[in-house]
Amino acid sequence: MGMTMTQKILAAHAGLDKVEAGQLITVNLDLVLGNDVTTPVALKEFDKMGVTEVFDKSKVAIVPDHFTPNKDIKSAEQCKLIREFAYDKDIENYFEIGEMGIEHGLIPEKGLVVPGDVVIGADSHTCTYGALGAFSTGIGSTDMAAGMATGKGWFKVPGALKFVLTGKPKEWVSGKDVILHIIGMIGVDGALYKSMEFVGEGLQHLSMDDRFSIANMAIEAGGKNGIFPVDDKTLEYVKEHATKPYKLYEADEDAVYDGVYEVDLSQLEPTVAFPHLPDNVRKISEVGDVKIDQVVIGSCTNGRIEDLRVAAKLLKDKKVAKGLRVIIFPVTQKVYLQAMQEGLLETFIKAGAVVSTPTCGPCLGGHMGILAKGERALATTNRNFVGRMGHPESEVYLASPAVAAASALTGKITNPRDIE
Amino acid sequence: MKAMGKVFKYGSNVDTDVIIPARYLNTSDVKELASHCMEDIDAEFVHKVKDGDIIVADKNFGCGSSREHAPLAIKGAGISCVIATTFARIFYRNAINIGLPILECPEAVEKISAGDEIEIDFDNGVIRNKTKNEAYQAQPFPAFIKEIIAADGLVKYVAKS
Does residue B154 sit at the A interface (CB-CB below 8 Å)? Predict the structure, then answer.
């Protein structure tokens, strides 16, 4: 019986020739990550462990991105705490706001994750790096503390679901639509405790930015991780961003899967998740008349350069709908600069959108775009739970940057195909 | 080890954003977190909950964010155990790591009603419903997780090993 790609990476990091689903193992970690919300809790636990140094100063990353630039005094105190820790412990990968970005955009961009790595992060969207052929998964603050102290983490080896992607997506269909479709198909707990392995000839039509979006939302199906095989596009990305050595793993031919799903990308339409769960999806043609108060384009799911380019393509020389608030936040400083150099920011501002510094802010109802009672947002973010973006009686609809930009022009959820 | 208390019952997919909304995550003070626990789906929870009470919920409890503030808020509110059909995996780890007992038991979830008086024996996984005079058998923890619990959480487990 063979192993899945995830199982092979875990086995290698546990020093074992073979692992199987359900087995409890301890693995060596290549990177331990935290942010300004989860790290303060981790530091309390780190202190209790009786260690004075982190296991490897180059393998810990701390990114203050949630409530930064600090939204209030309490947030400032939390950031101060982690900043002092980072300086005290000589953490090499601590990123102050001027050089930062939303962690899951920043970490790959900085070359801190490469194929074959095992990464844990005290943020559920750590699963994003599976796009690079790494095993990466979200954990809590205590696991982060233990990881920083020991360089090891315990895991139950996951079984896997295989998604065989075929065909070529139509215009305006992106990675976001692929993952929303899949979550709609299997449900928000459809991949509970399992890996989601994305394979198939359809991958050639998915850019790295598409793959980051897909892997990013594996958690929204309950997945432990999402993972892609490494191909030329991955290696090109790695070459451009990273210097550390990588290792390639492939699933065995006879690997065992708990389920295999075929997804014909050519049949997908732009897809929208209605409140209040990411699996409550509808095709754009079945959305009906949904008026919105705010559009948010950005986040660790969809704030990358391709996302901004597609939004700009639709917004170019047009104006956002009267009375609509449109907030765009690039995922990192680098993407922000690139968007500026390409003239995308000018397009956004002339269209009547605001462009924010990179921050998780509005996605989780932190700051920079909170909803009032009864308001509706269409967002390219990842969660539409009750109260996610503000008042418990507000609503969030999830979609791609193309749908978000098209909707920004009309004030209601709109198919980008219908924009001239 | 035993737990005893009244039941607060919820449905499927209780996410960490409703357990503790992100607008309160600018602190890690457990008492403050606990004072907002569940408020977006059950504003009465924090006023009614007493030490030892138990949350019973259906599938995928604790889905969403990795915030450890969620089990911390529940524990801080006085809850002695969460019983669910299934748990989201990060919540499951976090609960074990901070010493909040959790049990998977579909039968208990099906038969227990809000307000029932429940007694749980963690040694054998038996859940007794004193109101309905019934008993249900929960899944026992894997041995490795029992070791973490026996060490009183991951921190002491790591410190010990």
Answer: yes
CA angle B13, A302, A207 (to 5 degrees): 115
Cis, peptide link before residue A69, omega less than 30° from 0: yes
Integer Cα distance of A269 and A13 in angstroms: 39
* Among A149, A148, A146, A128, CA closest to A137: A128
**Number of Cβ within a 10 Å radius of residue A189:** 22
B129–A contact, CB cutoff 8 A:
no
**A139 reaches B (C-beta below 8 A):** yes
Strand extents, DSSP E, chain B: 2-9, 54-57, 81-84, 102-104, 117-121, 126-129, 134-137
Strands A376-379 and A294-298 turn out to be: parallel
Residue-wise pLDDT for B14-59, tens only, equals: 999 999 999 999 999 999 999 999 999 999 999 999 999 999 999 9
CB contact under 8 A, B17 and A222: no
Query: Is the CB of residue B15 less than 8 Å away from at least one CB of chain A?
Result: yes
Q: How many Cα atoms are found within 13 Å in the side-chain-facing hemisphere of A305?
A: 15
Provide the residue ranges of all domains of chain A, joining segments of one domain with +.
5-263, 273-418
Question: ipTM of the predicted structure?
Answer: 0.95
What predicted TM-score, i.e. pTM, was given to this entire model?
Answer: 0.97
Of the candidates A25, A222, A3, A192, the one whose C-alpha atom is nearest the C-alpha of residue A118 is A25
The answer to whether B88 and B95 are in contact (CB under 8 A) is: no
Task: Count CA within 13 A, CB hemisphere, residue A331.
Answer: 23
What pLDDT shows up at residue A345?
98
What percent of chain A has a predicted confidence (pLDDT) above 70? 100
Return the DSSP state at A274: P
- Name the A residues in 184-223 with CB < 8 Å from any B CB: 188-189, 192-193, 219, 222
Return the sign of the alpha-carbon dihedral for residues A59, A64, A65, A67. positive
Q: Do domains A5-263 and A273-418 have the same CATH topology?
A: yes
CATH of domain A5-263: 3.30.499.10
* Mean model confidence pLDDT for chain A: 97
Q: How far is CA B31 from CA A76, A271, A320, B75, in A?
A: 20, 41, 44, 10
- CATH code of the domain made up of A273-418: 3.30.499.10
Q: Which of B15, B68, B97 minimises the CB distance to A385? A: B15
- Strands in B54-57's sheet, in edge-to-edge order, are B102-104, B81-84, B54-57, B2-9, B117-121, B126-129, B134-137
Residue with token string 């748990």: B87
| Torsion from C-alpha of A355, A113, A136, A203, nearest 10 degrees | 80
B18 interface with A at CB cutoff 8 Å: yes
Cβ atoms of residues B115 and B7 within 8 Å: yes
Q: ω before A205 within 30° of 0 (cis)?
A: no
Using the predicted structure, report yes or no on whether residue B161 has a pLDDT greater than 70.
Answer: no
Q: Any CB–CB contact under 8 A between A163 and chain B? A: no
The string of pLDDT tens digits covering residues A231-243 is 999 999 999 999 9
Of B60, B67, B69, the CB nearest to A192: B60
Per-residue pLDDT of B92-132, as tens digits, reads 999 999 989 999 999 999 999 999 999 999 888 999 999 99
Give, in order, the Cα–Cα distances in Å from A96 to each of A24, A108, A368. Answer: 37, 17, 19
